[in-house]
Amino acid sequence: MTDSARPDFPDAEATLRFADLDLPAPLLSALAEVGYETPSPIQAACIPQLLAGHDILGEAQTGTGKTAAFALPMLARIDLADTRPQVLVLTPTRELAIQVAEAFAKYAHHLKNFHVLPIYGGQSMVVQLRQLSRGAQVIVGTPGRVMDHLERESLKLDALKAIVLDEADEMLRMGFIDDVEWILEHTPAERQTALFSATMPNVIRDVARRHLREPQEIKIRAATSTVSKISQRYWLVRGVDKLDALTRILDAEESFDAAIVFVRTKIATDELADKLAARGYAAAALNGDMTQGLRERVIEQLKSGALDIVIATDVAARGIDVPRVSHVINYDIPYDTEAYVHRIGRTGHAGREGVAILFVAPRETRMLKMITRHAPAEHTDGAA
User: Do 172 and 237 have their domain in common?
Assistant: First the structure.
């Protein structure tokens, strides 16, 4: 779908929302709190299938939102009264294991008595044994360490309902595929399996044929940037320094005409708009809680020059076409590369060159790598 085919404000009824996907209310509340309003393509495709109990064979690149695509339906089916492992997620690296575990914890914020545990090599076995003995409904781990615990019988999978193989081709590249198959063979036969891979080499398809039952095949390509007229840069900046970094950019950029500043939540749009207005900038918020008329008025003011800066959420800014927008500033890093590409597409219109700037906090470097893999950006020093 191209942005040019969209009106300034798409019909809300035509936009699929998480509330349409039969997810429990506690998960919807957590999603709203982190600024998720509409599912990405892979989330829209996978969540109903996984909720229905189907196996999934998903071809999806990193950065398409696949963690939520499997975490949300898995959480929806967790028995919180049972502290035994019910979901096992295998990842190729400790960094990804930690990231996936953090995502589960974030989405399960309102699920009482929920526990998720990342286990990986390099961490104290004694600590992991103690944590496993306390119980966790979701285990996220690297194949080698998961095998260790299965062999020790410190990890028991008799209550397992589902297993997820995340970045299967990366596990193949790193030589873990035999370990993965060993683990699969030591899980209950009656379990749901979801396999995600950026590519589908024959070895991965063979694993799927052996261990998945009539899987639903889903293929999603991450959006790629086709906007050659956009200069992309990123700043490494701590959260407490973001406001100062933003004002420095607004004051120093010679080509600045107007900007859309992206944040994750509706509350953040109002808070940042107020802070910028207090510093003398012509700024306003744009979010889904505003009436259609008010949102249209904000866009008209941006077009006419009455406003220079709009602080927006992803959904509220979708499809906006304002030629004078010279800058897109990602104040909060997007959750996936597709959102990033849509964001920066708000500039560089009508033959003009645009500038896209991304703020990256120290803990967000993995997401930065995903984004720069799809849309290369230059590093700019200027914020600590």
Answer: no
Final residue in a domain of this structure, among 220, 241, 259: 220
Domain interval for residue 243: 230-379
Q: Say which residues have a Cβ less than 8 Å from residue 52's Cβ, sequence separation at least 6.
A: none
- Within its chain, how far is the Cα of 42 from the centroid? 11
Say if residue 80 is in the same domain as residue 183: yes
Residue 335's nearest CA partner among 313, 303, 310 is 313
Half-sphere exposure of 167 (CA within 13 A, CB side): 23
Are 131 and 175 in the same domain?
yes
Strands (E) located in the chain: 56-60, 87-90, 116-119, 138-141, 162-165, 192-197, 216-220, 230-236, 258-262, 283-286, 309-312, 325-330, 354-360, 378-379
Residue with more model confidence, 35 or 306: 306
Q: Which two tokens stand for residue 140?
A: 């996220």
In-domain check, residue 19 = no
Q: What's the CA gap between 213 and 55, in Å, rounded?
A: 6
Closest among 329, 342, 323, 308 to 380, alpha carbons compared: 329
Using alpha carbons, list the distances in angstroms from residue 265 to 10, 34, 241, 313: 19, 6, 19, 6
**pTM, 2 dp:** 0.64
Rounded-to-integer distance, Cα 71 and Cα 103, Å: 8
Give the whole-angstrom CA distance, residue 103 versus residue 336: 13
Q: Which of 175, 195, 220 is the last residue of a domain?
A: 220
Distance CA 329, CA 51 (A): 36
Encode pLDDT of 281-312 as tens digits.
999 999 878 887 898 899 999 999 999 999 99
3-state secondary structure of 165: strand
- Length of the chain in residues, anyone? 384
